[in-house]
Amino acid sequence: MDVKQLRYFSVIAEEGQVTRAAKKLHMAQPPLSQQLKLLEEELGVPLMDRNGRNMELTEAGKVLYTRAQELLRRFDETVTEVKEVGEGLKGLLSIGSVKTCFSYIPERLSFFREHYPMVTFRLHEGDSFRLATAIRNWDIELAIVRLPLNLNDFSSLPLPNDRFVLVIPENWISQKPVKLREIADMPLMLLHRISGVGLYELVMDEFKKQELEPTIVCQCADAAMLLSLVRAGVGATLLPKSTLLSFPTIGLKIIAIEDSSIQSESAVIWLKDRNLSKSAVRFIETFKT
Fold it and tell me: Which stretches of the chain are assigned E, i.e. beta strand?
């Protein structure tokens, strides 16, 4: 059993047909069928149930497919790492960021374009929970997330804490700064994580500490949508201050909160047991300078 056979087997499993798999692999069907037969003979178990032209994984085949994906990913990472060492930084770097942390991205992409022009990027956006799942699934190498988040599987680099500010429509009259009890009387729209505990709970806990009951009129997982609603006069919102660096603030007022120290923690995270590409290591290092 070699890497080529594992690749062939994986494509057959994903396509469900030798014909489609051969087309995807740009090879003839008979030698592909022969490779599958040789693999089954070597292992001594059937890997596929044949049903006419269609094929389904046996229980043994499912185990091999799962292990093959991990082995092939690690093999590809090794090849990439060896090439990087010999040729310098190049290739595709897949990273993720929550929208409220996107302000960290442009400067670092500009840095890479200047110093490592052979590196290209694939950016993924989502809440912290989804980005953590994407890292576990090997869809991305690292992500910039908002905490809290279960970090048992991850290595992390903490980023500076970020104070919350009040964002209101430009035509609203408000003194600067405001107190939390004043904010509690406003129609509030809060950022809400799709899964798990997030900024919404952080804000609500602060109101609870001061024995205040805020007027929540909308919960939304997208900061851009929240700011659009504020601009339209629907209500106000509370966001980490750095969030506003990534969005136009025309039509908005940004006001400090006088009697509250609500802060959001964020971090760069990556899998503990994963060998990062050289590009990913360099990207993480930009947060340390």
Answer: 48-51, 54-57, 91-97, 119-125, 142-146, 154-158, 162-169, 187-191, 215-220, 237-240, 252-255, 263-264, 266-271
